[in-house]
UniProtKB/TrEMBL annotation:
Name by which UniProt lists this protein: Nuclear transport factor 2 family protein
Residue stretches making up the SnoaL-like domain: 17-112
Organism: Streptomyces levis
Superkingdom of source: Bacteria
Amino acid sequence: MGTAADPAFDKETLRRGLEGENPEILLSLYADDAEMRIVDQTTQPSHPKVLHGRDEIGRMLEDVYSRDMSHKLERCVIQGDEAAYSESCQYSDGVRVLSESMLSLRDGKIAEQTLVQAWDE
């Protein structure tokens, strides 16, 4: 549990942002200098896509949440300055996406995120 000097990561804000498809709410969870690494079938582990800072992360979130798809937070575990969550998504045509994220937290904000995702082909 966070204190005024060390605020806790807000799981309910994460849920509202993901499931409400609201990139502004999600972006509020990131530190200004956050870094996100994305690994999937096109950006494999040896060459992940890396986003630096809230501006780049925000542009990616805007793109994702402009798509015709639903999002659901499946699980979220928070322990100290680390968290992990699973997200399931479905496009309107039935294509499913599953992502797993590992987070490093600083002052209740996401400082680093590694996101691994897979989708139906």
